[in-house]
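The following block was generated as part of the benchmark described in Methods. Ligand: zinc ion.
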Amino acid sequence: MNEVSYRDITITDGFWKTRQDIIRNVTIDSVYDRFFDTGRVEAFEMKWKEGDDKQPHIFWDSDIAKWIEGVALFHEITPENEKKIEKIIDDIECGQDENGYFNIFFTVVKPEERFTHRTEHELYCAGHLMEAAVAYFRQTGRDRFLKIMCRYADYIEKVFKIEKSAAFTTPGHEEIELALVKLYSATEEKRYLELAKFFIDERGKRLEHTYGFFVDGMYDQCFKPVREQETAEGHCVRACYLYSGMADIARIYDDEELKNACRMIFDDIVNHKMYITGGIGSTPHGEAFTIKYDLPNMRAYTETCAAISLAYFAHRMQLIEQKKIYADIIEKVIYNGFLSGISLDGKAFFYENPLEIIPELRHKDVSVKNGERFPITERLEVFDCSCCPPNVIRFVAAIGDFAYTYDENTVYVHQFMSGEASFDGRKIIQQTNYPADGKVKITYYGKPCRLAVRVPDFCEDIETEDGYVYFDVEDGMETEIDLTMPVYFVESNPLVYENCGRYAVMRGPVVYCLEEKDNGKVLRDVVLDSSSEIEETQSDLTDVPVVKMKAYRRKAQNKLYYKKTDDMDEFTATLIPYYAFANRGENEMLVWMQVK
Ligand code: FUB
Ligand code: ZN
């Protein structure tokens, strides 16, 4: 299956244009400013010494790298941004040693300990810097940064693959695998692809040192060779970056065994370990997958980067084979568990994206030493571990990557976003307000072919072939499809104990939630009336309608326990898109609700 890159797509209006504009106009600068305040930018000058404040952290390199990548992917190399980036590249050039090595922490904090701590992110940082260099090269045509990173990649190849002189064999935090594939595609240097394959092939051949959150080797997916792995395990971001690299290698080398491992792992995630929002990560301990069906709502870990990494994995699977599930999962992530990671004004971020918030419990948590570790309840502009904010920038910049693929006879439309795509001598103009409504108009230019448009599962009234409707199109032809956008209730497998007797409300691809701001406190006690009329109204909060329906809640008595009564108060419940929660101050929030 051929990829249509975000580079060949311009998002012109609609839902994703709004998000892109906010990130262009607000987020890029605000993330840079916070990174500047916290010392991340200055750290590249390598002037830090013992006793100074703002000691560089082991993965500050990657925070700035993702910011650079995001700016480049956004084509936002304004004179101001260019100055900032060129200065950072000057610093990297200066800080790179004669061998090609570059890492801030292991130059200024622990220079004697290079490539001895498997868990401490040297190769992860290298990977992000490579991705940034590739994006900057593609956007500007200037190859200084790219060459710097090639020198580093050459050195990594020498140390890890040729001389095997590092204290470990594979990275404790995967990422460099998929980055090396990108470096290969930008430079056509096959050694980089082979190095990516090397790291993937070596993983799990032997137990290597890692954090001990889980049974040996689970945390960073080195518990057995990757081709024998059948389940998603350990730290979610590590895992899905690895699986993305595996899928890249499986596709490029046409490696059936690796493809099968990817398929099984993908199935395990989406059938057992993924939240309805597309979030992944059921525990803060190791930021990890746990056992099947363990999906706690209040203590969901569901890191923004983890949702991003799942979309990356699904996208790469989509390039391996045409199956609707990959696009369905990407859709789930982009409208829900990823999007909740950024505030509507583009300034603040969630690291964890829980599915239920009761602020009082969080307050109890912070007042008790070693509390139960509830996620924060309001977004912040920066974190000590601030991997998510710049990841959001680069993800939204390249959102177009998910929209189309094509083969000899067919162009597939997987995601709905207004814009123009030019690829393979064809052009597609897509016009839509999705998901505010489901009308999609597609104008096709180019040689005759079949246009396959994905029909999401909630459009039960449209007949499909493997989830797509097919149109024979030729140059200049317009096609229209009206994807119904129903409000519907969803249940989960009873083995998800937390959700027993509870239901989620969705409208099209968007998961909805109750918030205290609209519905008062104790949302767990609210019972929605599914037989009542459902009203959809526009709101000032966001561009997708809010949903209102009749609901009930018990009349509370001022006692701890009392005999059951059937006394209920009726009221109109207001549900907002999950991605918009916590944009009006700290308050209760709930996704899985009681319904009668
Ligand atoms: O360790 C680097 C990044 O910080 C990971 O990708 C995130 O999950 C967080 O642990
Ligand atoms: Zn993150």
